[in-house]
Design goal:
Helix 2 (about 20-40) runs parallel beside helix 11, helix 3 (about 45-75) packs antiparallel against helix 11 and helix 9 (about 190-200) runs antiparallel to helix 11. This protein has one domain (about 20-245): Rhopdopsin 7-helix transmembrane proteins. It starts with a helix and ends with a helix. By secondary structure, the protein is mainly α. The chain has helices spanning about 5-10, 20-40, 45-75, 80-105, 110-135, 140-160, 160-170, 170-185, 190-200, 205, 210-245. It is globular and about 55 Å long. It contains eleven helices and no strands.
Amino acid sequence: MTTLNIFMSQMPPMAADDYVGFTFFVGAMAMMAASAFFFLSMNGFDKKWRTSILVSGLITFIAAVHYWYMRDYWISNAESPTFFRYVDWILTVPLMCVEFYLILKVAGAKTSLMWRLIFLSVVMLITGYLGESVYRDSAALWGFISGIAYFAIVYEIWLGSAKKLAVKAGGNILKTHKMLCWFVLVGWAIYPLGYMAGTPGWYESLFGGLAMDVVYNIGDAINKIGFGLVIYSLAVAASEEAQTA
Protein backbone atom coordinates (compact mmCIF):
# COMPACT_ATOMS: atom_id res chain seq x y z
CA MET A 1 0.00 0.00 0.00
CA THR A 2 1.42 3.37 -0.99
CA THR A 3 1.87 6.27 1.42
CA LEU A 4 -0.97 8.12 -0.34
CA ASN A 5 -3.33 5.15 0.11
CA ILE A 6 -2.43 4.87 3.79
CA PHE A 7 -3.03 8.61 4.21
CA MET A 8 -6.38 8.46 2.39
CA SER A 9 -7.51 5.44 4.40
CA GLN A 10 -7.03 7.40 7.62
CA MET A 11 -9.27 10.24 6.47
CA PRO A 12 -12.78 10.31 7.98
CA PRO A 13 -15.38 9.44 5.32
CA MET A 14 -17.45 12.33 3.97
CA ALA A 15 -21.07 11.97 2.90
CA ALA A 16 -21.81 12.70 -0.74
CA ASP A 17 -24.30 15.43 0.20
CA ASP A 18 -22.09 17.08 2.84
CA TYR A 19 -21.58 20.41 1.05
CA VAL A 20 -20.01 21.98 4.15
CA GLY A 21 -17.37 19.27 4.34
CA PHE A 22 -16.90 19.56 0.60
CA THR A 23 -16.10 23.28 0.85
CA PHE A 24 -13.58 22.52 3.61
CA PHE A 25 -11.90 19.94 1.38
CA VAL A 26 -11.88 22.14 -1.74
CA GLY A 27 -10.65 25.10 0.31
CA ALA A 28 -7.75 23.05 1.69
CA MET A 29 -6.75 21.81 -1.76
CA ALA A 30 -7.07 25.23 -3.40
CA MET A 31 -4.97 26.97 -0.77
CA MET A 32 -2.34 24.23 -0.77
CA ALA A 33 -2.04 24.58 -4.54
CA ALA A 34 -1.76 28.35 -4.17
CA SER A 35 1.01 27.89 -1.59
CA ALA A 36 3.00 25.67 -3.94
CA PHE A 37 2.58 28.23 -6.71
CA PHE A 38 3.78 31.14 -4.56
CA PHE A 39 6.71 29.27 -3.02
CA LEU A 40 7.96 27.91 -6.36
CA SER A 41 7.73 31.31 -8.05
CA MET A 42 9.70 33.23 -5.40
CA ASN A 43 13.12 32.95 -7.01
CA GLY A 44 11.84 34.43 -10.24
CA PHE A 45 11.55 37.91 -8.73
CA ASP A 46 13.79 40.64 -7.46
CA LYS A 47 14.84 40.22 -3.83
CA LYS A 48 12.66 43.07 -2.56
CA TRP A 49 9.49 41.24 -3.68
CA ARG A 50 10.40 37.77 -2.45
CA THR A 51 9.29 38.48 1.11
CA SER A 52 5.86 39.56 -0.12
CA ILE A 53 5.50 36.39 -2.19
CA LEU A 54 6.75 34.32 0.76
CA VAL A 55 4.13 35.85 3.05
CA SER A 56 1.44 35.14 0.46
CA GLY A 57 2.52 31.50 0.41
CA LEU A 58 2.57 31.31 4.20
CA ILE A 59 -0.97 32.72 4.40
CA THR A 60 -2.41 30.08 2.11
CA PHE A 61 -0.27 27.27 3.57
CA ILE A 62 -1.37 28.01 7.14
CA ALA A 63 -4.96 28.16 5.96
CA ALA A 64 -4.64 24.86 4.06
CA VAL A 65 -3.37 23.02 7.15
CA HIS A 66 -6.14 24.43 9.31
CA TYR A 67 -8.77 23.63 6.71
CA TRP A 68 -7.66 20.00 6.69
CA TYR A 69 -8.11 19.83 10.46
CA MET A 70 -11.42 21.71 10.26
CA ARG A 71 -12.71 19.27 7.66
CA ASP A 72 -11.92 16.32 9.94
CA TYR A 73 -13.48 18.09 12.93
CA TRP A 74 -16.65 18.83 10.98
CA ILE A 75 -17.03 15.27 9.72
CA SER A 76 -16.33 13.74 13.16
CA ASN A 77 -18.49 16.09 15.25
CA ALA A 78 -20.97 17.75 12.84
CA GLU A 79 -20.12 21.04 14.57
CA SER A 80 -18.59 24.23 13.29
CA PRO A 81 -14.83 24.22 14.05
CA THR A 82 -14.95 27.77 15.39
CA PHE A 83 -11.86 27.51 17.58
CA PHE A 84 -9.64 26.17 14.77
CA ARG A 85 -11.00 28.80 12.39
CA TYR A 86 -10.06 31.63 14.71
CA VAL A 87 -6.62 30.11 15.29
CA ASP A 88 -6.20 30.20 11.51
CA TRP A 89 -7.39 33.81 11.32
CA ILE A 90 -5.23 35.02 14.22
CA LEU A 91 -2.22 33.86 12.19
CA THR A 92 -3.24 34.69 8.63
CA VAL A 93 -5.18 37.96 8.90
CA PRO A 94 -2.30 39.86 10.56
CA LEU A 95 -0.05 38.50 7.79
CA MET A 96 -2.47 39.94 5.23
CA CYS A 97 -2.08 43.29 6.99
CA VAL A 98 1.70 42.88 6.81
CA GLU A 99 1.37 42.75 3.01
CA PHE A 100 0.28 46.40 2.99
CA TYR A 101 3.46 47.39 4.81
CA LEU A 102 5.67 45.29 2.55
CA ILE A 103 4.41 46.81 -0.70
CA LEU A 104 4.51 50.34 0.73
CA LYS A 105 8.09 50.11 2.01
CA VAL A 106 9.28 51.57 -1.29
CA ALA A 107 7.33 54.73 -0.42
CA GLY A 108 8.84 54.97 3.07
CA ALA A 109 6.31 53.01 5.14
CA LYS A 110 7.42 52.61 8.75
CA THR A 111 6.98 49.56 10.96
CA SER A 112 4.53 51.57 13.07
CA LEU A 113 2.01 51.23 10.22
CA MET A 114 2.48 47.46 10.20
CA TRP A 115 2.06 47.10 13.96
CA ARG A 116 -0.99 49.37 13.96
CA LEU A 117 -2.72 47.23 11.34
CA ILE A 118 -1.69 44.03 13.14
CA PHE A 119 -3.05 45.35 16.46
CA LEU A 120 -6.39 46.32 14.92
CA SER A 121 -6.72 42.94 13.20
CA VAL A 122 -6.00 41.09 16.46
CA VAL A 123 -8.61 43.17 18.31
CA MET A 124 -11.09 42.48 15.51
CA LEU A 125 -10.50 38.73 15.75
CA ILE A 126 -10.37 38.36 19.54
CA THR A 127 -13.61 40.27 20.06
CA GLY A 128 -15.20 38.31 17.22
CA TYR A 129 -14.25 35.04 18.88
CA LEU A 130 -15.58 36.20 22.24
CA GLY A 131 -18.92 37.04 20.66
CA GLU A 132 -19.15 33.88 18.59
CA SER A 133 -17.99 31.33 21.19
CA VAL A 134 -17.70 32.72 24.72
CA TYR A 135 -20.29 35.45 25.30
CA ARG A 136 -22.93 34.51 22.77
CA ASP A 137 -25.71 36.27 24.71
CA SER A 138 -23.96 39.57 24.00
CA ALA A 139 -22.77 38.64 20.50
CA ALA A 140 -24.11 41.88 19.01
CA LEU A 141 -21.98 43.96 21.40
CA TRP A 142 -18.80 42.00 20.72
CA GLY A 143 -19.55 42.10 17.03
CA PHE A 144 -19.90 45.86 17.24
CA ILE A 145 -16.49 46.20 18.89
CA SER A 146 -14.99 43.89 16.28
CA GLY A 147 -16.62 46.03 13.59
CA ILE A 148 -15.02 49.19 14.98
CA ALA A 149 -11.56 47.60 14.65
CA TYR A 150 -12.42 46.46 11.11
CA PHE A 151 -13.51 49.92 10.01
CA ALA A 152 -10.39 51.40 11.61
CA ILE A 153 -8.38 49.16 9.27
CA VAL A 154 -10.56 50.24 6.34
CA TYR A 155 -10.00 53.90 7.20
CA GLU A 156 -6.24 53.45 7.52
CA ILE A 157 -5.82 51.82 4.13
CA TRP A 158 -8.44 53.84 2.21
CA LEU A 159 -7.96 57.32 3.69
CA GLY A 160 -5.14 57.23 6.24
CA SER A 161 -1.36 57.06 6.10
CA ALA A 162 -1.33 53.86 4.04
CA LYS A 163 -3.32 55.56 1.28
CA LYS A 164 -0.99 58.57 1.31
CA LEU A 165 2.04 56.32 0.94
CA ALA A 166 0.40 54.47 -1.95
CA VAL A 167 -0.34 57.76 -3.73
CA LYS A 168 3.26 58.82 -3.15
CA ALA A 169 4.54 55.59 -4.70
CA GLY A 170 2.11 55.76 -7.64
CA GLY A 171 2.21 53.38 -10.60
CA ASN A 172 1.82 49.66 -9.93
CA ILE A 173 2.11 50.14 -6.17
CA LEU A 174 -0.95 52.40 -6.14
CA LYS A 175 -2.92 50.02 -8.37
CA THR A 176 -2.05 47.05 -6.16
CA HIS A 177 -2.89 48.96 -3.01
CA LYS A 178 -6.31 49.84 -4.39
CA MET A 179 -7.02 46.23 -5.27
CA LEU A 180 -6.03 45.04 -1.81
CA CYS A 181 -8.22 47.77 -0.32
CA TRP A 182 -11.19 46.44 -2.28
CA PHE A 183 -10.50 42.95 -0.96
CA VAL A 184 -10.64 44.30 2.59
CA LEU A 185 -13.77 46.39 2.01
CA VAL A 186 -15.79 43.90 -0.06
CA GLY A 187 -14.13 40.51 0.43
CA TRP A 188 -13.78 40.79 4.20
CA ALA A 189 -17.45 41.81 4.42
CA ILE A 190 -18.25 38.10 4.02
CA TYR A 191 -16.97 37.46 7.54
CA PRO A 192 -19.51 39.71 9.34
CA LEU A 193 -22.24 37.91 7.39
CA GLY A 194 -20.95 34.58 8.66
CA TYR A 195 -20.70 36.00 12.18
CA MET A 196 -24.31 37.18 12.11
CA ALA A 197 -25.44 33.86 10.65
CA GLY A 198 -23.89 31.99 13.56
CA THR A 199 -24.74 34.21 16.53
CA PRO A 200 -28.01 35.40 18.13
CA GLY A 201 -29.12 39.00 17.71
CA TRP A 202 -31.61 41.34 16.05
CA TYR A 203 -30.21 40.27 12.66
CA GLU A 204 -31.22 36.61 13.00
CA SER A 205 -34.24 37.02 10.76
CA LEU A 206 -31.98 38.33 7.98
CA PHE A 207 -28.94 36.09 8.20
CA GLY A 208 -29.93 33.18 10.43
CA GLY A 209 -30.61 30.91 7.46
CA LEU A 210 -27.11 31.16 6.02
CA ALA A 211 -24.72 28.22 6.30
CA MET A 212 -22.03 29.95 8.33
CA ASP A 213 -19.16 27.63 7.47
CA VAL A 214 -19.88 27.77 3.75
CA VAL A 215 -19.87 31.58 3.90
CA TYR A 216 -16.55 31.59 5.76
CA ASN A 217 -14.98 28.97 3.47
CA ILE A 218 -15.87 30.86 0.32
CA GLY A 219 -14.64 34.10 1.86
CA ASP A 220 -11.31 32.57 2.87
CA ALA A 221 -10.66 31.10 -0.56
CA ILE A 222 -11.44 34.38 -2.32
CA ASN A 223 -9.57 36.63 0.07
CA LYS A 224 -6.44 34.66 0.84
CA ILE A 225 -5.72 33.34 -2.62
CA GLY A 226 -6.85 36.60 -4.21
CA PHE A 227 -4.61 38.64 -1.91
CA GLY A 228 -1.63 36.54 -2.94
CA LEU A 229 -2.41 36.76 -6.64
CA VAL A 230 -2.59 40.56 -6.43
CA ILE A 231 0.84 40.63 -4.77
CA TYR A 232 2.14 38.20 -7.39
CA SER A 233 0.85 40.46 -10.19
CA LEU A 234 2.67 43.41 -8.61
CA ALA A 235 5.92 41.45 -8.46
CA VAL A 236 5.56 40.44 -12.11
CA ALA A 237 4.83 44.02 -13.23
CA ALA A 238 7.69 45.45 -11.14
CA SER A 239 10.13 42.86 -12.50
CA GLU A 240 9.13 43.63 -16.10
CA GLU A 241 9.60 47.36 -15.48
CA ALA A 242 13.05 46.73 -14.02
CA GLN A 243 14.08 44.70 -17.07
CA THR A 244 12.94 47.33 -19.57
CA ALA A 245 14.38 50.27 -17.64
